[in-house]
Design goal:
Length: 303
């Protein structure tokens, strides 16, 4: 049955969203008691300790941060030549060195089943970068990042499956988002696909599902900080993840990634991303996405 849509305003933009969905009902400021009654949302105690605030943004006042109550993702971490990464990163961003001559590129497929701006899927290609202002050993920084599950990244591509997700990402965050057909499935195997504009295949990922581990809520937290230019000034936006069920494989040999020549295939090829050093599967996670805030580190460094 076709779902009914209603038109809402997002800043100066008009966007169709599912009628009676979370965005239609709550406009990013949900009643958590109502969310808790949604069986699809699961236990949402994690979000009760994170207050939402009405803050100014590029598109006017908006409630933040954004809550993703149920999500999963599949990530491949690649080695890529530092020379290729430096060539694509805007200065003064610097790739984090993992091995002599090589940095890290992450390809991630996300599926958000229950969230403030309604269900959608997303694909991401990002370069792992040094923490802004960091000096000294790359190896020590990488070890500390792994231990804390805290990484900095510059996103190069972030296609999504819904117009509200695209508009929010482009106009609220100035991220490289466009509409694409994306499918993510974590069953007996893990599978993900994204189509190029026009519907032809771009990337097709498949792998056996590694053995999953369950985590006590808030015991396996992680933070990714996206660093990008917003209106010509450097900003950072933090993503906090409360991982509940996950698996990880180092140097997996049974991962198939078909590149069919679409924009993400071309981007991975251009980065020289070839060797997969890690497969991460997150079967269940809760996510908090914060709005971008000015990053003053580079301003100080330039003075």
């Amino acid at each position: 049955m076709d779902r009914l849509f209603t038109q809402v305003e997002f800043g100066p933009h008009k966007v169709d969203v599912p009628q009676g969905g979370y965005y239609d009902r709550f406009r990013m400021n949900p009643n958590l008691d109502e969310v808790a009654r949604d069986p699809a949302a699961g236990n949402i105690d994690f979000f009760r300790r994170i207050p939402k605030r009405l803050v100014e943004s590029r598109v006017g006042p908006t409630w933040a941060p954004n809550f993703y109550y149920r999500s999963n993702n599949i990530q491949l971490l690649f080695l890529a030549p530092l020379a290729r990464l430096r060539a694509i990163l805007p200065e003064p961003l610097e790739p984090l060195r993992a091995f002599p001559g090589y940095g890290l590129v992450a390809l991630t497929f996300f599926s958000y089943a229950v969230c403030d701006n309604d269900p959608y899927d997303e694909a991401s290609i990002a370069v792992v970068i040094r923490r802004p202002g960091a000096r000294g050993s790359h190896a020590l920084e990488l070890l500390n990042s792994m231990r804390r599950r805290s990484f900095f990244a510059h996103v190069l591509a972030l296609p999504v499956t819904t117009e509200i997700a695209r508009v929010r990402g482009v106009h609220g965050y100035q991220l490289p988002k466009w509409l694409a057909e994306i499918n993510v499935n974590i069953g007996a195997d893990v599978k993900a696909t994204i189509a190029a504009p026009g519907g032809m295949p771009d990337l097709t990922l498949s792998a056996p599902l590694p053995a999953l581990r369950n985590a006590v809520p808030q015991s396996h937290m992680g933070t990714t900080t996206m660093v990008n230019l917003v209106d010509g000034e450097w900003h950072q936006a933090t993503v906090q993840t409360n991982t509940l069920s996950f698996a990880q494989r180092l140097f997996p040999r049974d991962v198939s990634l078909l590149r069919s020549g679409g924009p993400l295939s071309q981007l991975l090829d251009g980065l020289g991303a070839s060797t997969i050093i890690r497969l991460d599967v997150v079967k269940d996670a809760q996510v908090v996405l914060n709005l971008p805030t000015p990053l003053k580190t580079f301003d100080r460094a330039g003075k």
